[in-house]
Design brief:
149 residues; mainly alpha; 82% helix
Length: 149
């Protein structure tokens, strides 16, 4: 009788241990998936820059307006589909901003695009972006010093 109790207790402990170890693993997998989705969103945002100004930084002509509209609709659909799949709390605010940018034309400005692209890149690889920004600041200081000489 005592052995049966030990077997049942052991199996319960094994089940509880399995659940305890599975939860953090699922959470880490979701974070990795969200980072992958953010990378896709960043690629879409970077591809969106030419749609704002058109070729050669001028306003789009009437000839390619239809193509740009179709491309913009595809962009909005893809970006909203990516944003809806982001699940972790860490990236929820960013997902809401991506959704606003994709679905609401009032938020679809060049300033929002720039800040959103920067924030997505910071979410993907913060140390690299910080290093890049510090190197660019140092380069600007050096250029200002050289110009001032």
């Amino acid at each position: 009788m005592e052995q049966i109790v030990y077997i049942v207790l052991g199996s319960l402990l094994a089940l509880i241990g399995g659940f305890i170890s599975q939860y953090p693993q699922n959470h880490l997998n979701q974070i990795k998936e969200d980072e992958s989705l953010l990378f896709q969103a960043d690629c879409l945002l970077l591809d969106y820059y030419p749609l704002i100004k058109g070729k050669d930084n001028h306003a789009p002509t009437d000839n390619n307006t239809l193509k740009l509209k179709a491309k913009e609709v595809t962009f909005r659909d893809d970006l909203s589909k990516i944003a809806i799949r982001i699940c972790t709390k860490r990236y929820r605010g960013l997902a809401v901003r991506l959704t606003k940018f994709a679905l609401d034309s009032t938020f679809r400005t060049e300033d929002n695009l720039t800040s959103l692209t920067h924030d997505v890149q910071m979410a993907i690889n913060k140390p690299m972006i910080k290093k890049y920004e510090s190197e660019m600041k140092d380069l600007l200081k050096l250029l200002k010093r050289r110009i001032g000489e």
